[in-house]
Design brief:
Blueprint: H1 21-68, H2 72-85, H3 90-102, H4 106-119, H5 125-138, H6 142-155, H7 160-172, H8 176-189, H9 194-204
Helix pairs in contact: 1-2, 2-3, 3-4, 4-5, 5-6, 5-7, 6-7, 7-8, 8-9
Length: about 200
Amino acid sequence: MQPSNRQDPRSSFTRLPGVSTPRVRLWLVGACLVAVLPLGWRVQEVAAELQRERRATSLYSQGLTLYLRGRSPEAAHLFRQAIALAPLAADVYGDLAEAEVRSGNVDAAVQAYRRLLGIYPYTYFASLYRQLGFIELRAGRNVDARTDLEQAVALDPRDWHAHYLLGHAYRRLGNSEAAQAAWRRVLSIRPDYQPAQDQIHQLDE
């Protein structure tokens, strides 16, 4: 009697010669386990990431509270911890920089903005250079301030605030002509901005 080649109606697959049904089912179970294991690892990774983000948010909130109470060094410490857990949290870098400035750590403040520029080279670009230039201007680093503020206005020619700060950098470096040009640029964007008018009048006296 010839063996039948018909598919077993109780099975969803055709038996292969020399392969038993239990063995095929064992292979299928093994294949499913191999497919599911990476998914399990991914779920664990996502859960761990969410836990890090929650911890970073908590640290950031505590840092803001301390910052508003005038406890800038402690706030900066918590901001740094938050960044270590969530390096892409852009808002934290700016607050860290301000806390460092208030603590007298200008180098650390500049480094915070430099790190943010490295992480997000395509967003907030002009405003970040303006903030960086402002910090350097406050610290008397006029050459660095001029460089970063020139970068800010090159990226966003309509940033009147950056032009205004750049005028101060030029004036401190003894370039009154460039300072006046910067402040006139401010007035071309914001004709009613009195501080720029005052600076031009002072130069004309």
